[in-house]
Amino acid sequence: MPQPPAPPAGHALAFLSRLCARGAGFIALAAIAIAGTLTPVKEALAQGLGCGGLLVGVGDSRASLVMKCGQPFATDTVCIRIPRVVWSVPLHPREAPRQYVTETCEYVDEWTYHRGPGNFMSVVRLQNGLVAQIRDGDRVP
């Protein structure tokens, strides 16, 4: 039986084909070896929001979001706690400055879009007038 042409050297498929040619016992080993070289799905795919055939992504403006998706189902303002290091000024010259950590609150908008029955709601976080994060919310019954 003729062999298919070999993939380029160094290619993951070439590695798999060489192992599979040695016998069926190597198929599981080859699958594990190749799976370790793949980029995880969460890193490879960026979250986006599709609205009527138009896509909204991280970095889009608030105006672009409204033009593509319309007004949200619900809006909320949430506090994101940001740690900040503060140095104290010593009162006596022999004392060393001290540092301590405080938290400041940055208020951001979260807009929720209703995607229809049986779908997850989409939650869009807006910071400084730009889309900073898009995530799935609760599933609508």
Features:
alpha+beta; 141 residues
Q: What string, H for helix and E for strand, traces the elements in order? A: HHHEEHEEEE
Strand percentage = 35-45%
State the separation between the terminal residues, measured CA to CA.
Answer: 55 Å
Helix content: 10-25%
Q: Total number of β-strand segments?
A: 6
What's the story with the biggest beta sheet?
Answer: 4 strands, antiparallel
Q: What is the topological layout?
A:
Layout: H1 12-22, H2 26-35, H3 41-44, E1 49-51, E2 54-56, H4 62-69, E3 74-88, E4 98-113, E5 120-127, E6 130-139
Antiparallel strand pairs: 1-2, 3-4, 4-5, 5-6
Helix pairs in contact: 1-2
Q: How does this structure look, described?
A:
This protein is α+β, with helices and mostly antiparallel strands. It contains 4 helices and 6 strands; from the N terminus they run αααββαββββ. The protein has a 4-stranded antiparallel β-sheet with strand order 3-4-5-6, covered by helices on one side. It has a two-stranded antiparallel ribbon with strand order 1-2. A hairpin with a 6-residue loop joins β4 and β5. α1 packs antiparallel against α2. The protein is elongated, with a radius of gyration of 26 Å. About 6% of the residues have low confidence.
